[in-house]
Batch of 3 targets.
Target 1
Amino acid sequence: MSFTAEFHEIAAEVRNWGRWGDDDRIGTLNLLTDEVVAAAAATIETGHRVPLAIDLTHDGVQIGSIPTRINPIHVMGTIDFPDLGDPDGDAMVPHFSDDMVTMGLQAATHWDGLSHVSYNHLLYNGVSASTITARGGAEVLGIEHVRSLVGRGVLLDLPGAKGLRRLPDGHEVTADDLDEAAAWAGVEIRAGDIVLIRTGRLQLYFDISARAYTVGENETGESPGPGLDAVRWFRRHDIAAAANDTYIFEVFPGPDWDNALAVHCLTIVDMGLTQGQNWNLEELATVCAEHGRHEFFLCANPEPFVGGTGSPVAPVAVF
């Protein structure tokens, strides 16, 4: 498999290498300037908050299709333990419980870091993929460089705009789809926006199973999501970050197998766009409809795992 001529044409159009300097480590998150964040904070009216993460649980969305991306394994380290000692069995001294977790950093609701994807052995900004090592992880483009990720969130509710419950399996989200959803919501896309794209796919996880969510209700392996045309839209609007409610983020396998997973390469490697998957946008869609607005303040800071190629996140939309 090799990418098509269209892929390379788009790569040349959207590439941000050097745009924020040769040593840049955060890509399009540079668009989240103080002014952009201050304007985003001004959208808060009622203080109503909507959580957007799915639960971190041992029976989560991972079904083993990506071997190292395991669901969280939670175990107790100590239970009601007297850290300072309790020689007399006195229940009045302090007792503590601690626990630990083993999980894939991209197991549930997460951000992909800029070291998550490479092609031609290169990461974002021309950084060599050899900078990812077994012991050090992503030694140049680790997720820890993203010290904050807050700004104006915009929900583009594609099924809502089309009068559907959810998009069909394999639906390629185009620039026209995104424009249609923005117009339906009455929202203007601005530079530095964090765009959340609802497909409705997560309904399969809640209603049926993790397997149905991951590979489709009919197990075709197809998934809806942004295609090549949407990448141009992201770049044209100077989107700071994008996330959606699917397992794979992009349309899969897409209309041309030679471009399978091309969106990951174009957005993360060429654009330096932080992207997220497995976000729960169901309640958010309801609240946006109730409030009559699809913009909000979004707090979605990743955990600063040094060398991490991604990070779990518990995003919250504030109205």
Note: The mean pLDDT is 96.
Target 2
Amino acid sequence: MSKKGRVLVAMSGGIDSSVTALMLHEEGYEVVGITMKTWDYASSGGSKKETGCCNLDSINDARQLAVNLGFPHMILDIRNEFGDYIIDNFVDEYMAGRTPNPCVLCNTHIKWDALLKRADKLDCEFIATGHYAQVRYENGRYVVSKGLDEKKDQSYVLWGLSQESLARTRFPLGGFTKPAIRQMAFDAGYQELANKNESYEICFVPDNDYRGFLKRRVDGIEKLDGGSFVDRTGRVLGKHHGYPFYTIGQRKGLIAAGEPIFVTQIIPETNTVVLGPEHELEKQEMWVRNPNLIKLDNLDTPVEALTKIRYKDPGAMSTIVTEGNRIKVEFRKQVKAVAPGQSAVFYDGNDLIGGGFIDK
């Protein structure tokens, strides 16, 4: 076995995970590659070609790199676990009038669990992924911090990882920019990989039509067509196509009005979507459920933190504190479009304090 250790690398076939494997191999780790088959898009009835980590081309690309570098590669079929947990949650959240965060759930409950279980069977001390984030050990805890490349930083989707998972996790790309990673691939002779396009869609909705996906998955969803758009006083403004097809902060696809109008609330019980002007999206307080703390072991006393309420959100300064089994967040200034179901993630500078799901 290598002095560096044996590492199981999650390989999607894309540039980030491929360069991750390449870097660790060159650093002297004993690399084992694994590609997780999570979803068959054809089974969802979508109209576009399967893309991303689940298609055959990507699997073959990952395998070919392993062959070229001389390390073993395997495919792990986790479609049943993925479907039961991630897809069901995705549908359930929309049906509950919330906006789900499937990538966070997949990382926490599916991919890391699957990787660590297989790592144990293969005698791998570590697992590695192509996320743009960093992890270090400090003051008795493993701490996640932002990746060097602010545009690519993926720490937001890692808030649910446990200390036990982080102890065995490596993020080789965290200290590099995306252009540097492309150059590494090019210099290593993988020009096609260096120029490979990235996929930003949800892997099981590669055509980005989540409404169509819900229609194919939920029996009787068409019966919700014809619900009411109302204002905050309850006055009916028009008819909509079913509350699951709208999200907080949405502006397009609503009704004609004399001013810009947005979705401000979703009420599943009455199939009602509340609309209002932009200022009605503003909140200065919210609650976060199912929290997981990374840098700190508790929030029994108030802590100042930068809170992000969506992936591309620049964040807003706030005070956070645990009350019961939830975290109360009080922003210094009002923030817009707080969407239940999305992740709220807390930062101390570049370090990830923790996160949870927005409750209300």
Note: The chain has three domains: 6-194, 220-276, 282-358.
Target 3
Amino acid sequence: MLAKDVMTRHVISVEPDASVMQAVRLMLQHRISGLPVMTAEGELVGIVSEGDLLRRVELGTQRRRPRWLEFLIGPGRMAAEYVQARGRKVRDVMTTTVYTADEDTPLDAVVQLMEKHRIKRLPVMRGSTVVGLITRANLLHALANLAREARPSAASDQAIRDRLLAELDKQPWAPVNLIDIVVRDGVVELWGVITDERQREALIVAAESTDGVQGVEDHLAWVEPTSGLVIEPEATGAKA
């Protein structure tokens, strides 16, 4: 999937000379947590979000520090925080470093960018023009749509086993040489040993995510690497 497949195309924005209260009203009215800041000519110059408005003098939440710490921080940073807490225009409080994506940016690259920079929204560009916005909510909606579109597929037990083994062969954590997989009537039975309890959950998830699987039975034993102690699973049974 690409950025254009999940983005919100109707972008609510605010101008840099608008008042902070105008931005707040827009966010409340449209139930959104941030706004692209754009000039009258359509140039993207910043982002204003709820996070930019947490430290406000109106709320009594402006930063307060001991004098000795203020001396270490320096006047520049304190001046910037003063503007952030008391500025009346959007340009005073907005974040000016803006990360963007193109329409054809793969969704994986979008998520990596959002994770790397710890941001919740990403303007989508066509050249120098903002044509959309991707938020974490857009990603959740896309995931929900994919789940609705997914349909259980009829598959033979052998086809299920082959698909699951092919998936595990690609995973460096999977102890493929220590486990055996049996599939009966769509139910996957996991046998063998693991050396880390987290492998158990990952193997079950891999099985549950395989098309055609109706349930999973866990018979895996955990071998503690240091002592060699074998610990059987607490309980076995099919998981839908």
Note: Residues 15 and 38 are 5 Å apart (CA to CA).
